[in-house]
Amino acid sequence: GESTSVNCILFFCAGCVALSPSSGPLPRPLRLQGPGAATGFLRRLKRSWVWNQFFVLEEYTGNDPLYVGKLHSDVDKGDGNVKYVLSGEGATSIFIIDESTGDIHATKRLDREEQAYYTLRAQALDRETNRPVEPESEFIVKVQDINDNEPKFLDGPYTASVPEMSPLGTSVIQVVATDADDPTYGNSARVVYSILQGQPYFSVEPKTGVIRTALPNMDRETRDEYVLVIQAKDMVGQMGGLSGTTSVTIMLTDVNDNPPRFSHKFYQYTVPESLHVESVVAKIKAVDADLGPNAEMDFRIVDGDGLGTFRISTDQGTQEGVITLQKPLNFEERAIYSLRIEATNRNIDPQFLTLGPFSDTTMVKVAVEDVDEPPVFALHLSEMTVSEAAAVGTIIGTVTAHDPDSANSAIRYSIDRNTDLERYFNIDATTGTISTAKLLDREVNAIHNISIFAMENDPSQIGKGIALVTVTDVNDNAPVFAIEYETFLCESARPGQVIQTVSAVDKDEPLHGHHFFFDLTAQAVDNHNFTLRDNKDNTASILTKRGGFRRQEQSLYRLPILIVDSGSPSLSSTNTLSIRVCRCDPDGVAQSCSAEAYMLPAGLSTGALLAILACIFTLLVLVLLIVTMQRRRKEPLILEEERDVRENIVRYDDEGGGEEDTEAFDMVALRNLNVVQDPMVRRDVTPDLPSLFVSRLAYKTLPDNIIFREFIWDRLKEADVDPSAPPYDSLQTYAFEGSGSLAESLSSLDSLSTDSDQNFDYLSDWGPQFRKLADLYGNRESRNPFS
């Protein structure tokens, strides 16, 4: 059932090989040959045509379309009835086919690096019916590579590091170059590496691109950075190959391969003997060419005569050795100190121990400079004791100081009075002997902390010492009750019952402690109510001798108690214990201790009594407030100029005192307005008659129409010159009676301001009710009514 003929002939651009029909089976497969044909075999198949693939060179630069190959079917008799159709990747855009001849051409330049092959489908159709005359078949057009891409270092430029002193061949970094050409075809993508710059320090492996050290023991301190240029070339590095380069920066990292070194083998410093302890004497530095932790070092004093006087430590920031003073210096004792100092690396790498010891030593001499020092006390703290009974002038001790300098100047002593404000002590300026200047009291101040000054001739050189004076105790205080006792005795107390336990205190402090003796005074020993029992432990108990105590009989008892101390000589005091008789509950708790409370009716409790007292107190407070408010309402006796009575409403709730009351009110205010009121009128004094007279007579001599006009003009002038008058837009009203009546005012109160010759002596005959009027108006010639 196999076909005995080949139905397709393939033509190729670079010399075609035609496969013609054969009348018998093929004795063996036919190989297609030619530059554009695939390397494959044609076999006899059921279909009419078979092929594998075409090859097309990339980067074709010709002007005409590039011929790819030819398709032909044995159905095609050359009469034009068969047409060829091409479809698939790049059909009509890149590849075109002559539908009559089957010739395939590429119309664009191809780049294998963009697309390596194209899959196309071919079919032969009947031109009239457009029906396939052969089944559709698929073939591949493969783009054949040429060396058109140079190697590229996609990760370059590179940066790497390697420790200094590394052995030969130490791997540093690997560089990789990529070639976009086809690695399966030819040598276009086969890259080799070489070093263009960086020899003889480094090398690169041609195939792998691994960079290694080419010299041993490279020293960072000599050179710490290298820049290499690496080349990658395709075509296995042969002539005509393309190449690319990159740079590689290699840093040598530090290792501890250098010991510390002092710049000098001998250092000398000078310090004053007055230098304070913990002060810095000097700083020395050892140089280490390494960096960071590899340059850290420790300093120590390994020898010398100043081991205990000086100390050296490392400044972590600057890596300097800091020499500090540990003990005070004294030029007179030692003038020069010698120190042997060693600096050692802190972090030593064992692999570099062969390079030598990682330490160095130097000598340091410290010269002490003499200065004028203040006097120094033999004892900075002198402890002394004195009895509080010591008389004034008693010597309690002596302090001594000396001049530490070779001059050995004379010393004068004094007391810092800021530490002895009460001036209890004196000191001999020459000998330093301290004595008492006042009587001492241990109970006021038991310890005196006195500062003593020692001075040379130069007042700026002052030494300071301390004298601690302890005042010893003598028995000069009598014992007393420890507290103020409040003793309650229940009415139901039984004989022999303990009602109070007392103790005593004494300001003195004997060496063996206090021991007090308690007893009743001689006057109280024979009392029939209470007795005392000394407990021999510095306490005493008070007991009742009888029962049946009653508040109504006696509510308070006073018991004198004698307390004696154990001092030598012993002192004693009499203390009175107050005992109050109280009504107690069944548990013995005092309920009421007042004798008055006992006399109250049985139905009135203590709470009710308190409520009554509270009400009485509230009433008293209200009465006091009412009286205070009434006093505040009374006007002052003098009307001040700043006060405008027209702008105030004054209310009087007082009732007059009748005819005998002549001082409660200002009588002048009740007269008619012919009298001009003085702005400073005393309410308790009768106005001056001459001034009132003149004012009234001035208006009486004028006609009525002129009187009103003159009255208004006078008031207007007063308002114009009065600084306390109301503003101009205020309304001021005046009441004026005028003088139309011959009798004028009918009030007898106006008679004081007139020149009437009427005799009022008859008022004294009217009885005691008119005595005041008689005193005011009677005997005018012999008596001044306003005196």
From TrEMBL:
Superkingdom, natural source: Eukaryota
GO molecular function: beta-catenin binding; cadherin binding; calcium ion binding
Transmembrane portions of the chain: 598-627
Alphabetized InterPro entries for the sequence: Cadherin (IPR039808), Cadherin-like_dom (IPR002126), Cadherin-like_sf (IPR015919), Cadherin_CS (IPR020894), Cadherin_Y-type_LIR (IPR000233), Catenin-bd_sf (IPR027397)
Cellular localization per UniProt: Cell junction, Adherens junction; Cell membrane
Keywords: Calcium, Cell adhesion, Cell junction, Cell membrane, Glycoprotein, Membrane, Metal-binding, Repeat, Signal, Transmembrane, Transmembrane helix
BP terms from Gene Ontology: adherens junction organization; calcium-dependent cell-cell adhesion via plasma membrane cell adhesion molecules; cell migration; cell morphogenesis; cell-cell adhesion mediated by cadherin; cell-cell junction assembly; homophilic cell adhesion via plasma membrane adhesion molecules; morphogenesis of an epithelium
Residues annotated as domain Cadherin: 73-153, 154-262, 263-377, 378-481, 481-598
Topological category with respect to the lipid bilayer: Single-pass type I membrane protein
UniProt xrefs under Pfam families: CADH_Y-type_LIR, Cadherin
Cited function: Cadherins are calcium-dependent cell adhesion proteins.
Protein name, as recorded: Cadherin 7
Organism: Scleropages formosus
Record lineage: Eukaryota, Metazoa, Chordata, Craniata, Vertebrata
